[in-house]
Design a protein that fits this description.
The complex is a heterodimer. Chain A is mainly beta. Chain A has strands at about 5, 10-15, 20-25, 30-35, 45-50, 50-55, 60-65, 70-75, 85-90, 100-105, 105-110. By secondary structure, chain B is mainly β.
């Protein structure tokens, strides 16, 4: 099946710094979602972005489907950005929707005040 | 506010006991999902349901059972057959199933943490 790799696995930042999280996948995809899991376990969907670029406040994401990667940018990081960021993808060529999503292992971000 | 409610938040179980985790949504979503999360790992799909009275096994269904008698509710039972049930369990939903579009964006509940003593 499709492989999903996220990097870096851990990142520690000072408040105000910028960061880039990367998600590599082994096959073409038609569904890609980024999630943030806060320290209490709640997951929030950040972006649905199988291709192209989207922005939402300090966060933006770009998926280059032809090169099989997606990037999540966090600008002017805040302590509330701490947590684990997951990328989840669904391989193209399969029927179905989010039940076919494969999650990466996540990237832990710690933002210090 | 619309959302997904999972209960209980924390649950302790003795070996050999079945436990049921509740998941209720008021988003009017058709599809619902149960995931398991282990430390340092991504989420793995246990079961999903695309419509009332129908559900499908995910990647790790052994030792688990579900029902979907109402659109709003998708309870998960962790049976005594599950060899290693200690984990964090997450319920999710999406507007429509079986297509790849923005309607498949997952909304998650706050999770239930099960510990087997």
């Amino acid at each position: 099946g499709i492989q999903v790799e996220q990097s870096p696995p851990d990142l520690i930042l000072q408040e105000g710094a910028n960061s880039t999280l990367r998600c590599n996948f082994s096959d073409s995809v038609n569904n890609l979602q980024w999630f943030h899991q806060n320290p209490w376990g709640q997951l929030i969907n950040l972006f649905y972005i199988p291709s192209g670029t989207k922005q939402n406040g300090r966060l933006s994401a770009t998926t280059v489907a032809t090169e099989r990667y997606s990037l999540l940018y966090i600008s002017s990081s805040q302590t509330t950005d701490s947590g684990v960021y997951f990328c989840a993808v669904k391989a193209d060529g399969f029927q179905g929707g989010s039940e076919k999503l494969v999650f990466g292992k996540g990237m832990k971000l710690t933002v210090n005040p | 506010d619309g959302g997904i409610t999972q209960s209980p938040k924390y649950l302790f179980r003795k070996e050999g006991q079945n436990v049921t985790l509740s998941c209720e949504q008021n988003l009017n979503h058709d599809a619902m999902y149960w995931y398991r999360q282990d430390p340092g790992q991504g989420l793995r799909l246990i079961y999903y349901s695309q419509i009332v009275n129908d559900f499908q096994k995910g990647d790790i269904a052994e030792g688990y059972s579900v029902s979907r008698e109402k659109k709003e509710s998708f309870p998960l039972t962790v049976t005594s057959a599950q060899k290693n049930p200690t984990a964090f369990y997450l319920c999710a939903s999406s507007i429509r199933p079986a297509i790849s579009s923005g309607a498949n964006v997952l909304t998650f509940g706050a999770g239930s943490r099960l510990t087997v003593l």
